[in-house]
Amino acid sequence: MSANPSARLIVGNWKMNGGLGLLDVLAAELAGGGWTGRAVVCPPATLLGEAHRRLAPLGVEVGGQDCHVAERGAHTGDLSAALLAATGARHVIVGHSERRAAYGEADLQVRDKTLAAVEAGLSPIVCVGDTAEDRASGRAVEVVTRQVGAVLDGALNGRPWVLAYEPVWAIGSGRAATADDIAEMHAALRAVVGGATPILYGGSVTADNAGEIRACPEVGGLLIGGASLRPDQFAAILRGC
Ligand code: PEP
Question: What are the sequence ranges of the domains in the chain?
C-alpha cells in the first residue's frame, strides 16, 4: 500500500519514561533530517524545556502529556497549559486512555482540558478510543464518536486541534488495529469533526506497520508510544513521511 501523503504528523509519547540520555540519542538520530512531515515529541514534563532546546534546531516540536483545566491556582503537583507553553511546548496530549482509566477523567474534563490548551496557545492532541468490551459489543463507533462530540461541544471555534484514535486494546499490546477497523473508525470520525482536523492513529505502531497504517484513508499521522522510546524506530517512522 502506498503511503497517504497527508499522513504527516508523527507524535511520540514517552509517557513516564526517558531522560537526558534518551534525548541525546534521539537528537543524534534525527540530526541528519530526511523527513518532510511534522514531528512532535512528548517527553515527561520535567524534560520539556531541555527537549525543546535540543530538538527545535532539528525541526522537532515538543508537547506535554496532560494539562490541568485551570490557568493557575492551588493545584499541587499539576501543570497548566500555560506552564507547558512557557517551556517551548506547542502541543499537549489530553484524554489519553491511561489517564481516563487511572484518574477517571471523563469526557467533560477532557473537553475542559482541550479548551484550556487552546486558550494557552497549544494545539491539543485529543485522544479517544474504544475498549475491547466496546468493540466486542459492536459499540466502538458509538463510544468513540460520543467522546469526540463532548469535545466539540466546547466550541473550539476553529482553533487548531488534533484528534487521535487510539483503541485501548491496541495500546501497548503489540496488536495494532487492522486497516479495515482504522478506515471504518476514521471515516466515522471525519464525519463528526469535518474537514480540517488531522486524525491520528495510535496503538502498537512500529516501524514495520507504520507505512500500512499511514496509507489508510483519513489517517493524518501517528501517535506512537513504545516505539518512540527507540530513537532508531521513531526516526525510521518519521523518515517514512
Ligand atoms: C499510546 O499510549 O499513546 C500508544 C500509542 O502506545 P503504544 O504505541 O505503545 O501502543
Answer: 22-63, 65-205
Q: Which atom of ligand 1 is nearest to the CA of 97?
A: 2
Q: pTM of the entire structure? A: 0.96
65-205: CATH, from 3.30.1330.60, 3.40.50.720, 3.20.20.70, 1.10.246.130 = 3.20.20.70
For the chain, strand residue ranges (E) read: 9-13, 38-42, 60-64, 91-94, 123-128, 162-165, 199-202, 221-224
Reading the block at residue 190, the C-alpha cell is 471525519
Q: How far apart are the first and last CA of the chain?
A: 14
C-alpha 97 – ligand 1 centre gap (Å): 10
* pLDDT, tens digit only, all 241 positions of the chain: 334 555 599 999 999 999 999 999 999 999 999 999 999 999 999 999 999 999 999 999 999 999 999 999 999 999 999 999 999 999 999 999 999 999 999 999 999 999 999 999 999 999 999 999 999 999 999 999 999 999 987 778 788 899 999 999 999 999 999 999 999 999 999 999 988 899 999 999 999 999 999 999 999 999 999 999 999 999 999 998 7
Is 225 near ligand 1, meaning CB less than 6 Å away? yes
Q: For residue 100, how far is its CA from the centre of ligand 1 (angstroms)?
A: 14
